[in-house]
Amino acid sequence: xxxxxxxxxxxxxxxxxYMCPKQCFSRGVDLSAQGYFAAVVTAPxxxxxxxxxxxxxxxxxxxxxPDQAISWKxxxxxxxxxxxxxxx
Length: 88
Ligand code: SF4
Ligand code: SF4
Hints:
The chain is of the alpha+beta class. 11% of the residues lie in helices and 14% in strands.
């Protein structure tokens, strides 16, 4: 799993940058449609949960974001079914 930021809710407070022990987030440089410099997930491969599908071992960013803007997204390869079919 990898963290993803919903630009509809992110207010660019950058708390996630300071909270993440693996420096997965960076400051945003582009204004979102809501008018904020939303944070960006620039290093999802560093996340403790990278390549995990069950029993996540860190959720600091998801739990700590004051706007509930961070949620889990499957790794790109997790979308592939056993036959290589896209599942979602
Ligand atoms: S903590 Fe949440 S609202 Fe603040 S920058 Fe990160 S994702 Fe955006
Ligand atoms: S789950 Fe933990 S390691 Fe992964 S991005 Fe969030 S705070 Fe960083």
